[in-house]
């Protein structure tokens, strides 16, 4: 039988170091490629981020040194309720590390980027040690290498993805490894490991404030100690040390965290979210990572191929049978990974290690059988070859999987397009101390960090009542009602919707007919080209039926058009601009628009859809076809045509087709 080779501690250390170096080296090479292609990834000397949340962490890291009062309101979030609702949450390990690393790099953005490059690979250490300690060296190698290059994990730890994902495998696997280790230790070593478990848990909560994790690990820890027949007083001492060093307050709030995760979060909630018994539309409908996917798609994300994923799950089943109770410390992570089949691809990064562990075990198991039964001649005469067969097969299959099924070929792009980033930087400090921007939520954190704007909603408070009324204001065909909605919440705030008995239809009527001018003369409506392809979400919220709890929404349909001044061709079909016929479809209007306004307008005096084409430097920038309801919307008129009511709006910035900004009077 092919046995797992025993290595010296130095050999194991060097092997782990090699795998970590390969993982971090690849991520650093991504940054090198960005520097080589500087104009595509940098705004001047500022590196772009590949996650919108990164701008939030960078802003907090920048504020960290000057923060003396931990309860200071965050004036950039949740306007106008921030004075008593949102605080500067700088008590976060990622914020702390970015702040301190920036002292070395001289740049907060580079500090975040370099941290991700380094920290994304450290999960390899506890995961490798766990599998090696269980007797599966080749499986440990396969699992750690394939996980770090898997699409599900690389996507969340690519260059520029400054977010907590880069340590969200390390802390759980380290806790699992320590739980696995503690029953095997004796005397003071067991208690030192229990203290280390508590400190790891504390750091995890400082990093990622979801104490529900600790409830799960506490349950697993207690059960594992019982199964391993640890003496009562030793077990009790270990448990107490774990709780004390993890900070007991986290365990007290952990149960509520689990209840919210299951029943109130975007990962499990249905189409509607209730706030004060009102079924508001759920933003999860338009966040791809929280949308439920088929099992084939989940395995594609987790393993790169559904058949590879199935093989890994089969191998995982065999590995669990082999490990028996030693799988228990890994159970919280495994369950989180399996949640992917219910809640979407957000948690596939927790599933990938187990699929690849199963795959690695299949390779080991198959090689073991092959050597013991199919290569007896080689085993007797060429012993070295027979003992190396598992390693050779593992290396060959790893190369194949990494090349064909991993995320190494994926090229991340900036989350905020460079021209919009540049616009945000250009308008910083142009409109007063802290202007308020009324726009869609996606770029909220970027507006706060790059433009110094306060926002109504952002990536942390999107959805429900705030996003509903922002969407409604853009979808309505009446700019006065848009101004009324903005002024209504400027006066009353959104928090009042969470208190008392609220009738949403009554609030909508009050808001759309509110006549008082805005209190804050520095509220800006921003419309940018990215909102065109987000319009389905905008209209989904705006057309929400509170009784039926669903939405029948409209959208732009993207076209691929060419225009040379006389001939218009869209999706490889010519448009007859004399009759308004496009293939089999009769059009009502065609608009050709550039930064100066309408270049050409063809009105065919019939009912039909409308084509809108935007030119930039005499080239087609964007082109869409839409129906009349979208055409008449406030967003369409403000963005595409710059058409506004000067009694209620003042145009204060215009670099169309990138962005237009209007001040609310």
TrEMBL record:
Presence of keyword Transmembrane helix: yes
Taking the record's annotation, the residue ranges forming a coiled coil are: none
- According to the entry, every stretch annotated as the STT3/PglB/AglB core domain falls at 436-486
**InterPro entries given for it?**
STT3-PglB_core
Q: From the record, give the transmembrane residue ranges.
A: 108-129, 136-155, 167-183, 214-245, 323-341, 347-364, 384-405
The keyword Transmembrane helix is assigned to this record: yes
Keywords carried by this UniProt record: Membrane, Transferase, Transmembrane, Transmembrane helix
Question: Which molecular function terms from Gene Ontology are attached?
Answer: transferase activity
What the entry lists under Gene3D superfamilies is as follows:
3.40.1380.40
Q: What is this protein called?
A: Oligosaccharyl transferase STT3 subunit
What species was this sequence derived from?
Answer: Calditerrivibrio nitroreducens (strain DSM 19672 / NBRC 101217 / Yu37-1)
Q: What is the lineage of its organism?
A: Bacteria, Pseudomonadati, Deferribacterota, Deferribacteres, Deferribacterales
């Amino acid at each position: 039988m092919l046995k797992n080779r025993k290595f010296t501690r130095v050999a194991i250390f060097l092997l782990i170091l090699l795998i970590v170096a390969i993982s971090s080296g690849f991520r650093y090479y991504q940054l090198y490629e960005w520097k080589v292609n500087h104009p595509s990834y940098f705004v001047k000397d500022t590196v772009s981020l590949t996650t919108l949340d990164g701008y939030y962490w960078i802003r907090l890291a920048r504020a960290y040194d000057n923060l003396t009062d931990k309860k200071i309101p965050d004036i950039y979030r949740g306007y106008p309720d921030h004075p008593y609702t949102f605080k500067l949450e700088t008590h976060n390990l990622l914020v702390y590390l970015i702040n301190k690393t920036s002292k070395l790099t001289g740049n907060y953005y580079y500090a975040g980027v370099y941290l991700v490059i380094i920290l994304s690979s450290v999960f390899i250490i506890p995961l490798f040690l766990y599998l090696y300690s269980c007797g599966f060296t080749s499986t440990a190698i396969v699992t750690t290498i394939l996980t770090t290059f898997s699409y599900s994990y690389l996507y969340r730890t690519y260059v520029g993805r400054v977010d907590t994902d880069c340590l969200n495998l390390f802390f759980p696997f380290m806790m699992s490894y320590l739980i696995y280790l503690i029953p095997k230790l004796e005397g003071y070593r067991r208690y030192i490991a229990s203290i280390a478990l508590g400190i790891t848990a504390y750091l995890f909560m400082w990093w990622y404030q979801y104490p529900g994790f600790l409830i799960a690990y506490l349950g697993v820890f207690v059960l594992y100690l019982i199964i391993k027949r640890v003496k009562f007083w030793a077990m009790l001492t270990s448990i107490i040390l774990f709780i004390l060093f993890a900070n007991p307050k986290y365990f007290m709030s952990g149960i509520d965290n689990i209840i919210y995760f299951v029943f109130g979060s975007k990962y499990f909630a249905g189409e509607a979210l209730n706030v004060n018994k009102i079924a508001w539309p759920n933003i999860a409908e338009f966040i791809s990572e929280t949308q439920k996917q088929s099992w084939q798609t989940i395995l594609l994300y987790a393993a790169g191929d559904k058949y590879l994923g199935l093989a890994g799950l089969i191998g995982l089943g065999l590995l669990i049978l082999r490990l028996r109770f030693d799988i228990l410390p890994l159970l919280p992570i495994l369950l989180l990974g399996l949640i992917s089949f219910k809640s979407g691809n957000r948690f596939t990064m927790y599933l990938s290690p187990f699929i690849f562990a199963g795959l690695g075990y299949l390779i080991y198991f198959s090689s073991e059988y092959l050597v013991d039964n199919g290569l007896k001649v080689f085993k007797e005469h060429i012993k070295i070859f027979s003992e190396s067969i598992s390693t050779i097969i593992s290396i060959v299959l790893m190369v194949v999987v990494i090349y064909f099924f991993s995320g190494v070929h994926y090229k991340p792009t900036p989350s905020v397009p460079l021209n919009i980033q540049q616009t945000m930087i250009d308008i910083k400090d142009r409109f007063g101390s802290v202007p308020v921007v009324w726009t869609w939520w996606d770029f909220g954190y970027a507006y706060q960090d790059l433009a110094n704007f306060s926002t109504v909603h952002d990536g942390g408070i999107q959805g429900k009542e705030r996003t509903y009324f922002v969407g409604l204001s853009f979808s309505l065909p009446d700019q006065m009602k848009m101004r009324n909605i903005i002024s209504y919440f400027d006066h009353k705030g959104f928090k009042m919707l969470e208190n008392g008995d609220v009738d949403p239809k009554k609030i909508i009527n009050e808001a759309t007919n509110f006549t008082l001018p805005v209190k804050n003369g520095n509220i800006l409506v921003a419309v940018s080209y990215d909102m065109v392809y987000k319009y389905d979400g905008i209209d989904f919220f705006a057309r929400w039926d509170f009784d039926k709890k669903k939405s029948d929404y409209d959208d732009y349909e993207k076209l691929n058009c060419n225009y040379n001044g006389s001939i218009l061709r869209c999706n490889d079909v010519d448009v007859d601009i004399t009759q308004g016929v496009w293939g089999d479809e009769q059009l009502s209007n065609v608009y050709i628009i550039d930064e100066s306004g309408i270049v050409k307008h063809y009105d065919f005096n019939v009912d039909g859809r409308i084509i809108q084409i935007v030119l930039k430097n005499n080239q087609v920038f964007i082109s869409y076809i839409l129906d009349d309801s979208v055409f008449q919307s406030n967003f369409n008129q403000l963005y595409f045509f710059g058409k506004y009511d000067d009694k209620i709006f003042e145009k204060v910035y215009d670099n169309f087709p990138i962005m237009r900004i209007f001040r609310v009077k």
